[in-house]
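Revision sheet: structure tokens.
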Amino acid sequence: MNIYDSLLAFTAAAALLTLTPGLDTALILRTASVESKSNAFKAAMGINVGCFIWGAMVAFGLGALIAVSELAYNILKYCGAAYLCWLGLNMLLRPGNGLTAVDAGGKEKKNWFVKGLLGNLLNPKMGVFYVSFLPQFIPQGQPLIAWTFGLVAIHVMLGMSWSTVLILATRPLARFLKRDAVSRWMDRCTGTLFLLFATKLALSKR
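Predicted:
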């Protein structure tokens, strides 16, 4: 493929990947509807920074370790599954504030960026996907590092655009969705979804 064909093909494939519902979509929708627009954007930023970190690992060869080493893959897989279980159980057992950490002084910690970042980095499927996916769209003879980061930037721009659409779409309903009964119901549903993602991740194979 030439440069134009590579960029066009990757953009189309990345757009399909972005629009496919998953953990990131669930986290952003829940945060936007129950918490606030700013917290949802922080979570989205964390997710997208995670994509750049995965891209860096691919560009410098570290991501290949996740793809070829069963031990490395399993370690990251089980850490990710444990993290998702922790999030899911907190939302089920403490609906309404299960995703909000509280410090010793009783103040809420605004760590939505970290939640989005960890959710992305602890998913080995992202690493395997980037390792197997990105090289296919790098034209022969082009610089690997520059093209890897360029393709990741396209993916991140698409992801941020879609996140913005999701966040803004929920805001007109925010007053209704923030009612205690509704927010608890949403937390229980999202918590159950996180547990299902955790189970799927724990049972996954390279």
